[in-house]
Design brief:
Elements: E1 3-8, E2 14-16, E3 19-21, E4 29-37, E5 40-41, E6 46-49, H1 60-69, E7 81-85, H2 105-121, E8 125-129, E9 145-147, E10 152-154, H3 163-176, E11 180-182, E12 194-196, E13 201-205, H4 211-223, E14 228-232, E15 244-246, E16 251-254, H5 256-259, E17 268-271, E18 283-285, E19 288-292, H6 296-304, E20 308-312, H7 315-318, E21 329-331
Parallel strand pairs: 7-8, 10-11, 13-14, 16-17, 19-20
Antiparallel strand pairs: 1-2, 1-4, 2-3, 4-5, 4-6, 7-21, 9-10, 12-13, 15-16, 18-19
The chain binds citrulline.
Length: 335
């Protein structure tokens, strides 16, 4: 359960998780102290004015209005916003474990457009940042930051050519989050190694994410009430999430090799179909699962389990080891 936090700006608009509700008469007030139980919003109890005087006001008519128009996201796959960055032409120099040729720039650009459209169709407001030619891997924004309900953490990529991407992302996070923390080092963490579930944050130790980085992340996220669990990214696999995705509060899509490690013992796991391990990196966004096109058996399994599947071509991103999760930061602003 997350506290319901509504902010009312001086212009009379109420703000709840990035939404704006017009017509409130409680300008300048901040409302705290309510909870979301299941999908029901419990009536707020305490209303403070902007000066923090702690006045308690009778506001039931206002909240009836909010209940109708501003359901508050509370699941770890529900978001209102995403940040993406368009691929630079230098993507042909992007890092890769095995050379399968360079991505075709026109195709990767078209795929990126389709990906952004899929996010928008899932109900998200999408910020599209301009490409940074000096950083060939800059469209893989997930590795630069971790967005949590309380705030954002600027990460410290273990690939030296990608360190500057995190610095470049910081101001965009400050635009939407009140609290922005940073991994200061000496450790490293990349977002591709982080899986946020409903009850914990799993971080895979990998060639890009080390114990010191995980320890610093655990300290920052711990102060916001999150439990961080260190797990192992299988050897030879780029990131933990190369091999898994969150499907809902209890269910994970994973490759058989990652599932065999036992790290999902407390979850329900759906394994990728034989020969389709490359589609384990998908994203659950609001009511849909966005997965790479070309993996029909796994898509069928998910559809049979009741998930709404949307596919986006990923052949070009895959040439530089990219997938669905790396192309966006998904979050609900606190500003
Ligand atoms: C890299 O090797 O860093 C990029 N070419 C691919 C990053 C993919 N990121 C991710 O899965 N989170």
């Amino acid at each position: 359960m997350l506290p319901l936090r509504l902010r009312c700006s001086d212009d009379g608009l109420l703000h709840a998780a990035g939404s704006e509700i017009a017509g409130s008469e409680i300008a300048g007030s901040e409302i705290v102290g309510s909870e979301i139980a299941g999908s029901e919003i419990v009536w707020p109890e305490i209303v403070r004015d902007a000066a923090g005087a702690g006045r308690t006001l009778a506001l039931k008519p206002c909240f009836e209005k909010i209940l109708k128009v501003a359901p508050m996201p509370y699941h770890s796959w529900q978001f209102t916003h995403a940040i993406t960055r368009r691929p630079p032409t230098s993507i042909c120099n992007g890092l890769r474990a095995v050379d399968q040729g360079n991505p075709d720039f026109d195709r990767i650009t078209a795929d990126h457009r389709d990906y952004v459209a899929a996010l928008r169709n899932a109900g998200m407001t999408v910020v599209e940042l301009a490409p940074l030619e000096e950083f060939p891997d800059c469209c893989f924004v997930e590795d630069a930051a971790l967005c949590l309900p309380q705030g954002a953490i600027v990460l410290r990529p273990g690939a030296v050519t990608r360190l500057g991407e995190a610095r470049a992302m910081a101001p965009h996070l400050a635009d939407v989050f009140t609290q922005v923390e940073a991994i200061s080092g000496p450790g490293f963490v990349e977002g591709g190694d982080i899986l946020v579930t409903e009850r914990e944050i799993l971080v895979g130790r990998s060639a890009r994410t080390d114990a010191a980085g995980i320890a610093e992340l655990a300290q920052i996220a711990g102060a916001w009430g999150h439990r961080v669990r260190e797990v192992i990214t299988p050897p030879g696999v780029l990131h933990f999430k190369t091999d898994c995705s969150l499907l809902d509060h209890q269910t994970i899509l994973a490759t058989p090799r990652l599932n065999a490690s036992g790290c999902f013992a407390d979850y329900t796991v759906i394994e990728t179909a034989a020969g389709e391990e490359a589609c384990a990196n998908a994203i659950r966004v609001n009511e849909v699962v966005i997965m790479p096109a070309g993996f029909p058996k796994t898509a069928e399994i998910l559809i049979a389990r009741g998930y709404r599947v949307v596919t986006v071509n990923n052949t070009e991103c895959a040439k530089v080891d990219g997938g669905m999760s790396c192309l966006s930061l998904r979050f609900t602003p606190t500003k």
